[in-house]
Design a protein that fits this description.
This protein is an alpha/beta fold and 159 residues long. Helices cover 29% and strands 19% of the residues. It has a seven-stranded parallel beta sheet with strand order 3-2-1-6-4-7-5. The protein is globular, with a radius of gyration of 15 Å. The protein starts with a strand and ends in a 7-residue tail after the last helix.
Amino acid sequence: MQIVLFEPEIPPNTGNIARLCAATGTPLNLIEPLGFRLENRYLKRAGLDYWPNVSMRVFPNWPAFAERPERDENERWVMVSSKKRPQSLPLQAFPFTASDCLIFGPETRGLPDWLLAQSPKHLRVPMLPGGVRSLNLSTCAGIVLYQALICLGIPSQWC
């Protein structure tokens, strides 16, 4: 399982997701351009002192990530979107695998259509209709990652 942030824009969200990754041993991949510098104090503050525990890689663009030599042959790209699309499954119905890359888009734009077209695996976090358009990126990443880990069986040493 990995988390991929495509062109993240808000440093505290990325920092919070990095802390989530440190807590779960989940690799974090950032796809540039980033909306901040990695030295950003808000990014560092949100990640606290957990940065040494985060397995993080930064890629200059989507092709560099997609074509990386060490890519697992069983890897699946799971596109996470707040938009309800014909092919998207609600989170609770999605069949996760351990080789999934959970891909989240930029906070203000979401995943672009060309990237969504790269995979038939799409999921959404269910919300009450009306009022709220989307959840905060770091909240959504936490919900999705823990649902995936629950489905795959959280290791007993965590409990």
